[in-house]
Structures are given as C-alpha cells and as structure tokens.
Amino acid sequence: MSLFIFTKSNKSFKDQTKQKKRRNIIYRICGTVMILALLTILTGKFEIIHVNFYNTNHLTFWMETVAVESFGVSWLTKAELFFKD
Asked: Which string of DSSP letters, residue by residue, matches 9-40?
C-alpha cells in the first residue's frame, strides 16, 4: 500500500505540492523498510542466516515490529498528520 497506493495522485509530478512530494518520499522509505523486514524474516525461515543468531536475537519479533511501526508511520503520513497541504 505504501509503495503503490499511497503515492498515487491525479496530478503530474511537476504539479504536485512540495508536501505531497515529501509524503511520497516517506511512503517509499516506509515501504522499503517493510520489504526489507519481511526479507529478513524469510532469510531466518529458510536458514540463510545462522539459526542460533536468528533465534537468540528473536529477529522474527523485531522485524515484525519494525514492519508494523513503519506501516504506522506511513498510515499517519497518509492521514496528513505530517506535511499537510
């Protein structure tokens, strides 16, 4: 949602406001962080990362936390809590 839906606009790039461009940057950063967190979880699931390191540090829990927090920031930005027009 952050990468594709939230960045949509009915205006061309040059006609978008400065605030909308800033919000789009936040959406893209949040979306990228969510994807990286999910990829980290997958590397632990397929045992690409050393299993002891993955389990001792509870990376599934922390990556889920990072992904949810990132989505929360993205959602609050979409609600124009940050960078209102």
From this structure: -SS-GGGS-HHHHHHHHHHHHHHHHHHHHHHH
